[in-house]
């Protein structure tokens, strides 16, 4: 089922003491987007940008201040959560400690009324199906305290799936897991989503997580959508400085620069020759993989040290025009062997270089002169 958000807006009244009335908080600001049927959308942004509020609006726990929500052609904006057919895994998921796994998963089915009411056998079949999907059938008799974090998370997902929801909403479902388990569980979520083909929104502040499992990502900041697209497209064509900085590990390197007569200058050095960009000061973003070690490269940096990060080597250096305290460039290990002295020079891969306007921080498109 597709989900359509139309000008979705949520304001919370500002709180203040006495005469000092604070301004309203716009947690979600004019969010318009059509989520295609059967896709997994990663909703990504820093803490406080409005991710949980967006999910709460979609599942019906909160009412929008403005705007509408459609499931396929049906306007669900005023439906209660029970009537929307949404499965939700909350940020601070809590299983009932006194119930075993089977009872925890079955819980949402116990309260179904009227036509939806299920017999004991039907419930058992549903619970087994949901438990099978997340591969915890052999744990049904255990209590939550007897499960690992990853297993508890699977129970929470099974509990969200047991009502055969039309939409699955996952709010930072992996944040309580350790690094290895996070990797494993996110693959698991992807597998379950593919298998069930339930339209799913996966909220996270971890760009790596969102990039790796999403069909589409939505990057949010202060309630405003910054960019929507396939993960690789957004990485390769960030709409603005915020998106460029938010995606990628190691992060993009940002320099103060300027365009003068078609030359892109960082410090005194011309690092690229551009066509069609008017003279102006700019932020220059260079992805770590955009540097090529080169004896007569255009950008000269002060060498700090090579740093081995698993299979990659990153060269750590500094430059007076760099906004980051250190510049990280990823190069292949062999080209590092000849590093010596206290300077290092880089040529740049133009497709890994981005220019951003100083005023609104929007990306400035450019062509390079060969
Ligand atoms: P995220 O999930 O991205 O961390 P939230 O959606 O929880 O962000 O919050 C977005 C903004 O709305 C934050 O500034 C938060 O303080 C505010 N907010 C969230 N819920 C409420 C609420 N019930 N009352 C007032 N402000 C809220
Ligand atoms: Mg949240």
Task: Describe the 3D structure.
The protein starts with a strand and ends with a strand. 38% of the residues are buried. The model has no long low-confidence stretch (mean pLDDT 92). It has 370 residues and is an alpha+beta fold. The protein has helices at 51-59, 81-84, 101-110, 120-133, 149-161, 179-196, 207-213, 231-236, 241-246, and strands at 3-12, 25-35, 40-44, 66-71, 74-75, 86-89, 167-171, 199-204, 216-221, 224-229, 253-260, 263-266, 269-275, 280-286, 291-293, 299-309, 312-318, 327-331, 343-348, 353-357, 363-364, 367-368. Helix 3 crosses helix 4 and helix 4 (120-133) crosses helix 5. The chain is 24% helix and 35% strand. It is elongated, with a radius of gyration of 25 Å. The strands form four sheets. The chain has a seven-stranded antiparallel sheet. Bound molecules: adenosine-5'-diphosphate and magnesium ion (MG). Magnesium ion binds at residues 51-52, 91, 171.
What is the mean predicted local confidence, pLDDT?
92
Terminal CA distance reads 48 Å
How many alpha or pi helices?
Answer: 9
Structural class of the helix and strand makeup? alpha+beta
Count of beta strands: 22
Could you say which overall geometry the principal axes of the C-alpha atoms support? elongated
Please estimate the helix content. Answer: 10-25%
Rg on CA atoms, Å:
25 Å
Largest sheet: 7 strands, antiparallel
């Amino acid at each position: 089922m597709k989900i359509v958000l139309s000008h979705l807006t949520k304001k919370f009244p500002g709180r203040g003491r006495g005469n000092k009335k604070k301004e309203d908080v716009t947690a979600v600001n004019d969010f318009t987007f059509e989520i295609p049927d059967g896709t997994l959308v990663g909703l990504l942004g820093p803490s406080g940008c409005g991710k949980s509020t967006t999910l709460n609006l979609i599942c019906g726990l909160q009412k929008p201040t403005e705007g509408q929500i459609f499931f396929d052609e049906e306007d669900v904006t005023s439906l209660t959560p029970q009537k929307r057919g949404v499965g939700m895994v909350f940020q601070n998921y809590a299983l009932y400690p006194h119930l075993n796994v089977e009872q925890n998963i079955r819980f949402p089915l116990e309260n179904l009324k009227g036509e939806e009411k299920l017999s004991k056998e039907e419930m058992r079949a549903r619970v087994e199906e949901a438990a099978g999907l997340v591969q915890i059938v052999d744990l049904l008799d255990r209590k939550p305290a007897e499960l690992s974090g990853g297993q508890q998370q699977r129970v929470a997902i099974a509990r969200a799936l047991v009502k055969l929801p039309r939409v699955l909403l996952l709010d930072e479902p992996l944040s309580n897991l350790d690094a290895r388990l996070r990797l494993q569980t996110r693959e698991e979520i992807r597998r379950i989503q593919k298998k069930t083909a339930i339209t799913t929104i996966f909220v996270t502040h971890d760009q790596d997580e969102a990039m790796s499992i999403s069909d589409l990502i939505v990057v949010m900041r202060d309630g405003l959508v910054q960019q929507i697209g396939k993960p690789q497209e957004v990485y390769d064509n960030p709409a603005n400085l915020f998106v460029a900085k938010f995606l990628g590990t190691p992060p993009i390197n940002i320099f103060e620069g300027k365009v003068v007569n078609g030359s892109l200058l960082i410090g005194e050095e011309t690092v690229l020759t551009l066509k069609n960009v008017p003279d102006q000061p700019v932020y220059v973003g260079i992805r770590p993989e955009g540097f090529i070690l080169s004896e007569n490269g255009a950008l000269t940096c002060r060498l700090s040290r090579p740093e081995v990060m698993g299979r990659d080597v990153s060269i750590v250096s500094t430059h007076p025009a760099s906004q980051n305290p250190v510049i990280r460039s990823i190069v292949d290990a062999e080209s590092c062997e000849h590093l010596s002295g206290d300077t290092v020079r880089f040529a740049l891969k133009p497709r890994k270089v981005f220019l951003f306007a100083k005023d609104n921080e929007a990306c400035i498109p450019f062509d390079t002169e060969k």
